[in-house]
């Protein structure tokens, strides 16, 4: 018996928070996955899974962890050791003992300076915020691309041992240079400026100890064995570095491209992509949101999202009617921009759409045609309208709740994913 596909890619079709965790949890169980691979973003992910009395918001670990599936962080994922250790402790508190994180030696690693620059700059933007969550993703990648990264070969050769000169250099040179470049330094008092500069020795030592602890307890560099892999994306196509509206984007390719590249290294040739959307539209953070309105106007009642709470950096969780033409256009654009990849790799590729939050008790407002006002449709009518406009991309998953039992898979998807 052989699987029709051993590789599934889960992608957010909007601005994040679509239900990727739910679908990843379902697929890792359904496919009997060996690995759950994160392929973009970093610890800013917030993928909620509720199972058997346990509820967790996954950020570094994959959302398939409750199924005893090992998490892989591919080279495109920013590794945040602070967040990784914190999440491991939270999972252990739930009685879940996760496998070590399989990480890449080429991955960028976030330091406390990256997070500090990110948080200070976002606060100072005030009403012109970019929508950052304050975890230093952009700063880490900026430093990484400039050749100043805490790369894994250097980590093993120096930072995990006794030499932390590299980190001290980042704190003493890169950190103040970035503060000046971003016009943050001019807004600091002289006392604050000197205090920040004088802390680099202490921070470098603390970070080195943190990395040693991560090496000893949660990181692993072993190559992947054979077996099914569910690739779990972070954020969504509306926040994609190349598809979103700058500057309100994430420093990441949120579509299928990174995952396809990694699948090619594993020799994969049959791939399924699952683009995830709610029955309505949300956005956590600053940036355009067409037809934005209060949640009660979108859903007909005062819904409260337990995961996406108001915070200092992203601020409020925002709502709008699902704009079906824009949804289909984003998905179609991602498929088109990766068509050459699929062809060059010699892959067969099947895309689907997963619709989550079907358990809305009223009829959500949706936009069926561009330029028209939102109308109210039942969740099932929304699915039918998406299928009409999506053409060959079928709605293969419908989800009523955040547990695997609440996911319904269509017959066509079962044919693709199940044992044959």
What does this structure look like?
- This protein is α/β, with parallel strands linked by helices.
- It is 36% helix and 18% strand.
- It has 14 helices and 17 strands.
- The protein has helices at residues 20-30, 81-93, 112-125, 137-145, 152-159, 165-181, 190-198, 200-217, 257-265, 295-299, 324-337, 339-345, 379-390, 411-417, and strands at residues 7-12, 35-38, 47-51, 54-58, 70-73, 101-103, 219-220, 229-232, 270-278, 281-284, 317-320, 322-323, 348-356, 365-367, 375-376, 394-399, 407-409.
- Strands 7-6-5-2-8-1-9-13-16-17 form a ten-stranded mixed sheet, sandwiched between helices. The protein has a three-stranded mixed sheet with strand order 12-14-15. It has a two-stranded antiparallel sheet with strand order 3-4.
- The longest helix is centred in the middle third of the chain and has 18 residues, at 200-217.
- The radius of gyration is 22 Å and the shape is globular.
- It starts with 6 loop residues before the first strand and ends with a helix.
- How would a crystallographer describe the biggest sheet? 10 strands, mixed
Strand order of the largest sheet: 7-6-5-2-8-1-9-13-16-17
Query: Which residue ranges are poorly predicted, with pLDDT under 50 across at least 5 consecutive positions?
Result: 152-162
Helix content: 25-40%
Terminal CA distance: 6 Å
Mean pLDDT: 84
Strand content: 15-25%
Structural class label:
alpha/beta
Helices, by number, come to 14
The total of beta strands comes to: 17
The shape, in one word, is: globular
Write down the Rg: 22 Å
